[in-house]
Amino acid sequence: MGAYPINCVSDHDILHERERIFKALKKALLERTLSAELTDHLGYEPHDPKGRKSGNSRNGHGNKRVTGEDDEMSITVPRDRDASFEPRIIKKGQRRFDGFDDKIISMYARGMSVREIRAHLEELYGIEVSPDLISRVTDEVMDEVREWQSRPLDEVYPIIIFDALRVKIRDEGTVRNKAIYLALGFTMDGHKEVLGLWIEQTEGAKFWLRVMNEIKNRGVNDVFIAVVDGLKGFPDAITAVFPEASVQTCIVHMIRGSLRYVGWKERKAVAKDLKAIYSAATDELALHELDSFDKKWGDKFPSIAESWRRNWEQVIPFFAYPADVRKIIYTTNAIESLNMSLRKIIKNRGHFPSDEAATKLLYLALRNAAKKWTMPPRIWKQAMNQFAVLFHDRFPFSIY
Q: Which of 19-23, 46-50, 265-269 has the highest mean pLDDT?
């Protein structure tokens, strides 16, 4: 009988072998961790002479079956003579072990690369973990991402803030700068909620129209105020799907963009004169302040006033609102602090190998950030009272 050809090994056999290796690595890491915990408990390394008169010592191992993320596995648990050792990673009597994957995901969510996670686990537990295992664990997050990105949303959001982060992603062999867009919504009770994230594939209105339709298809019927960062084609896409939405340019971004042209010596004075524009009582007074600003600074910084005039149609909706609502729109601390935490995660990365890798990491970072979000600001109740008057015919009194 002839020999079997080399390529007779099936995909199922290869997958089974990978699963076996993954399971062996997880078992080895868990047992090494338990051994390190016992060393910490006893206060001396194995075979160290100082342990002879310590009053307690190692006493072999016991077998234990635990259920992990995939299936059951048998592990050996080290014992001490006086039975005072209480493992932390898997406690006495515990039959489920989900901590391994969670620990890898937690490190990944904090911006550690696969290489850094490997080094960290080796330093702590003295075992080499394969890059495939780490990638496999983090890849499992993508199912959660897809579920999160398609979850139903509220019917009405008083405010949604749209913003973008620039990241480097490899695309068809070339590293490109891509924009990842976030939508941060304020619910009717004032809680913050990231509605989704999207990686820019095409420029302009078609991309934004797709995003708006996706939000609508997930249950959103109305948006009172949409705050954007002067993104081309975005206002038209918003009003095409939510025709009654008021589109507002982000004032904070306008200020930051203006000060980009100003040196440190004059920045304080320019910022003060800009404040006179956006803090004016009405849009007529704001335009008057803009004219005054242009007369004073136009020769030296002509692009500043030009930028405000170019975006004026999306700036002036701001002036129609009372102080309580203005403060929420202007003070975009929510999106600013969120972006700051995300930038900390991605700043040390040269680039992402794919759109999926970037999405995975940012989703995990968003999930961590959301855990720290507090109750709505005190001014939210006052703002909602104003919304009830301003948007009386659209205000869902039944849910407020």
A: 265-269
Q: How far apart are CA 320 and CA 390, in angstroms?
A: 10
User: C-alpha angle 143/145/151, rounded to 5°?
Assistant: 105
The DSSP result for 159-174, as a single string, is EEEEEEEEEEEEETTE
pLDDT tens for each residue of 234-259: 888 899 999 999 888 888 888 888 99
- Quickly count helices (H) and strands (E) in the chain: 16, 7
- With tokens 């030296």, the residue in question is 300
Burial state string for 152-164 with b = 16 or more CB within 10 A and e = fewer than 16: ebbebbbbbbbbb
For residue 245, give the DSSP letter: P
At 343-363, the pLDDT tens digits run: 777 776 667 788 888 888 888
Question: What percent of the chain has pLDDT above 90?
Answer: 23
Count the neighbouring beta carbons within 10 Å of the beta carbon of residue 266: 13
Count of residues for the chain?
A: 400
Is residue 241 classed as helix, strand or coil in its secondary structure? Answer: helix
Give the CA count within 13 Å in the CB-facing half-sphere of 158.
29
Structural contact between residues 113 and 349, judged by C-beta atoms closer than 8 angstroms: yes
Whether 228 contacts 162, CB under 8 Å:
yes
Whole-prediction pTM: 0.67
Q: What is the mean pLDDT of residues 310-326?
A: 84
Q: How, if at all, do strands 222-228 and 246-249 pair? A: parallel
Backbone angles phi, psi at 241, to 5 degrees: -100, -40
Handedness of CA 205, 207, 211, 217 (dihedral sign): positive
Among 189, 245, 247, 249, smallest CA distance to 216 is for 245
Rounded-to-integer distance, Cα 239 and Cα 364, Å: 31
What are the tokens at 373?
């979000």
Residue 371, C-beta contacts closer than 8 angstroms, at least 6 positions apart: none
Of these ranges, 24-28, 202-206, 276-280, the one predicted with the greatest mean pLDDT is 276-280
Band of the pLDDT at 2, cuts 50, 70, 90? very low
Task: Kindly report the number of other CB atoms within 10 A of residue 343's CB atom.
Answer: 14
pLDDT above 60 for 185: yes
Task: Report yes or no: 246 and 224 within 8 Å, Cβ to Cβ.
Answer: yes
220 and 228 in contact (C-beta within 8 Å)?
no
